[in-house]
Amino acid sequence: MKLLxxxxxxxxxxNDTLPEKAIPYFMDNENxxxxxxxxxxxxxxxxDLNRSDFDVDPALLYGGLLNNGYEExxxxxxxxxxxAHLPSIHNDLFDRILLAQAKAEGMMFLSADYEVSQYPxxxxx
Length: 125
Fold this sequence. Notes:
Number of helices: 6
Distance between the termini: 16 Å
Largest sheet: 5 strands, parallel
CATH architecture: 3-Layer(aba) Sandwich
Radius of gyration: 13 Å
Helix content: 40-55%
Number of strands: 5
CATH topology: Rossmann fold
Structural class: alpha/beta
Number of domains: 1
CATH class: Alpha Beta
Strand order of the largest sheet: 3-2-1-4-5
Order of helices and strands: EHHEHHEHHEE
């Protein structure tokens, strides 16, 4: 299964603090794990804002993701246009572009955010 991983889960994976429910998705060799360039952007911005939940060096996160076999998914104009077609359940702009990317690419979106789990194609962990 193709899984686009939410930014917070990427950070938790890098810090070895994943929720128990998430671990099987990361360990299943049948899954192809993706991260979005928007997640690196989000980590950069929120770290610069001194958000304690984004206490990660974005460059190290990026390198670690590539070194651990994650596939990078760039943001396209098509992804951006799809954001307008998402229900207004959640207003976080980063989550909305990630949801649009997952939808456009036929992926499941793996997230620990309850609000995000209200969208289709989301696995909540």
